[in-house]
């Protein structure tokens, strides 16, 4: 059986450093440090839980959850990201889909999925581009957004899939990518809530993902923004890895980028 050997959460956006050079450098260095820590566990596969930015999931098709089951992926190329092929893990993707089906989830399986910045920035700047990736997408853009409780149930299913359905010795890292607080194209556009961001990270440091789940999406969006609900991906990574605690790696209130930017390592059991 396989095992989750490393886990973390990170924001998935980088913008121009002009006017915020020092804080931008700390963000880049922080993402690299998180990657260094994850790679120390020697993962064979990276499961990255993130959101789509209306490139693959749009108004014409609105699945709640998607899992990639391809052997490789082509990046979307947004933000001038190179479109070099990224290896995938069909075996682990299919394991997640099969276990999820048994657990009452009808996951959309993607043979073709263009990796946008929500996946590419983390794997590039963590230095993990050569590790086969399995995208797990949470649709936060169309209503109804999956509830925090439903996301946690899927996270538990992902753990079961890795432990029961992947080959012996398969070593998996799980990363939740998105957030932290940000409001986009709504009232309060461009705001950052340091209070919310530190609350989220502090609860995950204490291994208290359940407190965040109990808030529910409405409170998360009210306090962290319509796009801040991407913290569901961090919660899922913490729950999937059964994290007993965590450690903040970096945080910057990047008002120039309209986003609270952070990263943390989860201590897996």
What does this protein structure show overall?
This protein has 269 residues and is an alpha/beta fold. It has one domain: 3-Layer(aba) Sandwich (Protocatechuate 4,5-dioxygenase, Chain B). Helix content is 36%, strand content 21%. It has seven helices and ten strands. The strands form two sheets. Strands 6-3-7-2-8-1-10-9 form an eight-stranded mixed β-sheet. The longest helix is centred in the first third of the chain and has 19 residues, at 21-39. The chain is globular and about 50 Å long. Pfam families: LigB. This is 2'-aminobiphenyl-2,3-diol 1,2-dioxygenase CarBb. GO terms for molecular function: ferrous iron binding; oxidoreductase activity, acting on single donors with incorporation of molecular oxygen, incorporation of two atoms of oxygen. Keywords: Dioxygenase, Oxidoreductase, Plasmid. Residues 13-260 form the Extradiol ring-cleavage dioxygenase class III enzyme subunit B domain.
Characteristics:
single chain; 269 residues; alpha/beta; Protocatechuate 4,5-dioxygenase, Chain B; eight-stranded mixed sheet; two-stranded antiparallel ribbon; 10 strands; 36% helix; 21% strand; globular
List the helices and strands and how they pair.
Elements (H helix, E strand, L loop, with lengths): L2 E8 L10 H19 L5 E6 L14 E4 L3 E2 L12 E2 L2 H13 L5 E3 L6 H9 L7 E6 L9 H18 L5 E7 L16 H12 L3 H16 L6 H10 L4 E10 L4 E9 L2
Parallel strand pairs: 1-8, 2-7, 2-8, 3-6
Antiparallel strand pairs: 1-10, 3-7, 4-5, 9-10
Give a nutshell description of this structure.
The chain is of the alpha/beta class and 269 residues long. Helix content is 36%, strand content 21%. GO terms for molecular function: ferrous iron binding; oxidoreductase activity, acting on single donors with incorporation of molecular oxygen, incorporation of two atoms of oxygen.
């Amino acid at each position: 059986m396989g095992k989750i050997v490393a886990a973390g959460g990170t924001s998935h956006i980088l913008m121009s450093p002009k006017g915020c050079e020092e804080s931008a450098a700390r963000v880049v260095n922080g993402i690299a440090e998180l990657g260094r820590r994850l790679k120390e566990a020697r993962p064979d596969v990276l499961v990255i839980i993130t959101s789509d930015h209306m490139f693959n999931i749009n108004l014409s098709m609105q699945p709640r959850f998607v899992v990639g089951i391809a052997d490789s992926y082509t990046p979307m190329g947004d933000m001038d990201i190179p479109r070099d092929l990224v290896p995938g893990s069909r075996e682990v993707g299919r394991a997640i889909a099969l276990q999820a089906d048994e657990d009452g989830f009808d996951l959309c399986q993607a043979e073709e999925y263009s990796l946008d910045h929500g996946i590419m920035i983390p794997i590039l700047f963590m230095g993990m581009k050569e590790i086969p990736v399995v995208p797990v997408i949470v649709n936060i853009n169309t209503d109804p957004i999956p509830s925090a409780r439903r996301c946690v149930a899927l996270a538990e299913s992902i753990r079961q899939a890795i432990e029961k359905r992947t080959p012996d010795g398969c070593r998996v890292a799980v990363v939740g990518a998105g957030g932290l607080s940000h409001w986009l194209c709504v009232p309060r556009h461009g705001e950052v809530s340091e209070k919310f961001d530190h609350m989220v990270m502090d609860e995950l440091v204490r291994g208290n993902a359940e407190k965040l789940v109990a808030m529910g999406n409405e409170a998360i969006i009210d306090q962290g923004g319509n796009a801040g609900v991407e913290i569901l991906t961090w919660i899922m990574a913490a729950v999937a890895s059964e994290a007993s605690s965590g450690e903040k790696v970096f945080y910057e209130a990047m008002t120039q980028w309209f986003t609270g930017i952070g990263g943390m390592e989860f201590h897996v059991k």
